[in-house]
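Field reference: sequence -> structure
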Amino acid sequence: MADAYLNQRQPLRAEELYRSALRDAPQADEALDWRIGLVYALLESGQHAACRRELAALQAAAPRLKTDRASGRRVFNPAFQRVALLDAMVTAYQEDTRGGWKKMEALLDEASFNPELRQNQGSLALMRGWPRLARGVFTRLSVDEPDQPEAAATGLAGAALDLQELDEADRQLLRLSELDVDNAGVRQLRERARLERRPELVLEGKKDLSGGQGAGEQNAWESSARLYSSPFGLWRLFGLHQLQRASYVNETASARYEALGMGAEWRGEQGRGEFGLTGQIDGGRRGGAFAGYDWMPDDYWTLGARFELNSAEAPLKGRLDDVRGNRSQLSLQYRADDYRSYALQAEALSLSDGNLRRAVSANWDQRWVSGPRYKLNTILTLAASANDVVPSARYFNPRADGEASVTAMQEWKLWGEYETTWHQRLGLTLGSYTQRDFGAGGVWGLLLEQEWRWGSRGSLRYGFTRVRHPYDGKAETGNKVYLNLDWRF
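Structure field:
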């Protein structure tokens, strides 16, 4: 009965029943199963400290060797491996996926062909963002263990969803239906597959709260919206709207850029690409276009290229003089795992006033602390840019500049119930900015953010930033609020 409550995502009721069974029959043959179930009930109800205590007690009760009653000899204890596997998975479920992976590798070194270990290795690979590795594990498992098809089909469905192979995910989920498999994990996969085929709305908005953000920019507002269709095959269509507007302390007129557009997006195992057309509706009556592709040959590397005609990245203040720009971008990312990633980016923005803006940047994102309630990342960023001398330019146009900064990003999980969670983040940035002809100055920033996540349904992020940055030798401080919504309906 306790197992049924746990399967129905009622962990508190399951905990009561597991404890009751263990009190009534602590030496029963099923006692180990009950204790493992109790650990999962504590984990799923968010009682992380109690979960670790119960797991530690279970480890103490299941040593590697035990005394055989018949012979009196010391023999291998089969309960040891089950508890060690439980320890590896609970470690990962409590957000220490690196620690869980190391424990899993140690177990596989001793029993490399154990199907239960291999199944959980595949699950861990999915948790760490390695769907191709996971697919290989589950494919081999389906061949080696044909009498246990449900484990392989579940893992292959999860890998297919991560790789945006929706038709393959549907085939694996159909296979699970034919096998009459109905547990919490499979139900979650079915719901995720259903939502992946729904329309999606993505909204982003930023509002300047005070003057002094970006060389005299004030009262600024920036927003973008995309509405995606349901996918057909690997494609989906979308419409978009972009708006930027701002006034300036040294200008009587306000600058504005607004455009509508439409396009198509392709998503698959090898990456993601899109192309589309835009048209200004702010009186400029100018068209634009864009195309980009991010190639992902494996679980680690992403190589991207993008081109934008009449790009929204052209300086907003330059639009007072009808300055437009075409943008080209190349990017390279190496994601070692869910703890560490590196990225390089180079771009050129060719402006209609004769300026060619060149920029390069690099960053290193590293997680140092990872737990069920708290995470700590640092992001090291290096950037440099150069511009041509354009005497008529009204926008901020440094001949050459560079910036180095480090951000400490802390995250707390304030509340959670399975896929529905509430998070808070605090980011602190310190750095130095150097501009030719104006010297160097300090940079600092503060970010306060909260995020609601509703599993595959969507997320809502909102926050506040305060940034101090030099422009032409004068430090300016700006405050902004922002909101991002991603929703499938």
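Note: The chain has two domains: 1-197, 200-488.
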